[in-house]
Amino acid sequence: MTAFVLVSGPFTGGWVWEETVRGLRAAGAEAYPVTLTGMGDRRDDAGSGTDLGTHVTDLVRLVDGIAATDVVLVGHGYGLHPVLGAADRRPERVARIVALDTPLPQDGEAAVRSVPDPDVRAWPADPAGPGADGGPVPPPARGGWPRWGSTEGVPAEALDRLERLSVPQPAGTLTRPLRLTGAASALPVTGVLCTGNGSSIDLVEMLVESGPTQYRALADARVSFLELATGHWPMLSVPGELAATLLRAAAGEGHRVKAPERVHEGADERADGNAGERADGSVDERADGSAGERIDGSAGQRADGSAAKPTDESAAKPTDGTADRRADGSVDERAHAAEVPTHLLPFLLDPPEASRERRGRVDLHLPDADDLGERPRPAVVFVHGGPIAPDQRPTPRDSPFFLGYGRYAASLGVVGVTVDHRLHGLGDYPRAAEDLAEAVGLVRADPRVDGDRVALWFFSTGGLLAADWLAAPPPWLRCVAANYPAFAPLPGWGGVEARFRPVEVLGPESAAVPVVLTRAGREHPAFAATVQDFLDAAAENGVEVDVVDVPLGRHGFELTDPTDASRAAVERAMRSVLRRLRA
């Protein structure tokens, strides 16, 4: 007999599983909907010491009392943290882990790090933030649940019940790090992906094929995937279908992703500067690429939840440029030349020497000193996508990808600018927009830059940040460029503010700035749909768009498809941008 232990996300209790439990029991399985200490109708049981360890102990005690031979632990949202903790302590009692629309956390990770709501994610460092004084973290205000995951498909009465019955979450459950020994390393994992929340098997396959090397662990035989066409709360939106899906997972069914036939040597970063993106917007990366993969396509984790450790010596090498910093604050770029795998960047076969100066979150790649002279030069600001983890190393501007673009611009006589903005979660677009605006202001104020001739070049999900500039282009903005962009939030990205929708901001004023759009012919459908919508809106509003097509290219084609066609596309896009800068 199979017994399902069902652990829900924050602010909830076992009551959210009621209809799913009926479906499981009707099929002959045992089902244990869990209400953890301090949650649901056990709210009054919480004390000052209630934390993640308390909840792990709750589950271990429950598992020890189950007679069934096959115990399947199901974790949803925060609930996956205690699920993995219990599996680590009782691996011999667990037949399978099911991660319900949730990334597997790694050893040492506190749940607050992956919370989608940026206000909650920031409160440990904010003395006035919710829960910062040791008190519980309040549930979302009415209408605020989409910030914790898509509510697509949830009936109005069920959403009302969710809001009415939610209770504050003990702060220690979110701040205490998860500790894993790796004892559960052999356990199979099924990821149930809710397509309405932005996850899908198609997306996972794209990441395995086109993403960094650590994504290949998603092709492990122990990892499988099932989909539900709903939002983040399937126990409320499609409880019957969820029950059937859990039964399929317990039986070992599910889609297994095939490993890519062609391995790109050294392809250890995403084309947009990200490595290991989670569905909730946070990220993790391992320097050696040996880490296993989170079941939603995020990096840094083996399928059992144990943490992989970097093993190559390069992991200990500083990646922020401080080792080669000149006395004046600039970086000796030649010292980094050996670190840049030029075979990944087909347009950078012979990296030109360029002076790189660091100014806070901004790096300026300057043309050769003999060519720079006294005349200010136009600038191209390269804007990475995300979300990325706050502690990701190398940061985007130190990655070979953006070093390559910055150098390439400098080799052509303009100032290449790379920026590390703080897009750490889906709710962080306003903060990332502030960082970008600040960076642009710094660049335009530099005497070596012609402040009246600036282009902004966006990559992947950084494309959402183009909305502000396209809505009301300033006179000095001579061009907006975008490579394989998202021009609207992807499915399930309900936490992104309405302001960041380039497809909706175009108007007559937008015609003042031309757009250079580089399109991948084998793009992920979710991205491609936003691009087509943007092109339709641009045509309606008279916006000039120079489309550079890479018919056989995939998302991040510069890394995934290092071909002559890719190189030609990059060269054509750069020429198009520079032509508009110099017009």
Description of the molecule:
This protein is of the alpha/beta class and 583 residues long. Helix content is 27%, strand content 15%. It contains 17 helices and 15 strands. Strands 7-8-9-11-10-12-13-14-15 form a nine-stranded mixed sheet, with helices on both faces. The chain has a six-stranded parallel sheet with strand order 2-1-3-4-5-6, sandwiched between helices. Helix 1 crosses helix 9. It is elongated, with a radius of gyration of 24 Å. Mean pLDDT is 82; it is low at 263-350.
Low-pLDDT residue spans = 263-350
Major beta sheet, specifics? 9 strands, mixed
Inertia-based shape: elongated
Radius of gyration: 24 Å
* Secondary structural class: alpha/beta
How many H/I helices? 17
Helix content: 25-40%
The chain-level mean pLDDT equals 82
**Cα separation of the termini:** 73 Å
How many extended strands? 15
Assembly state here?
A: single chain
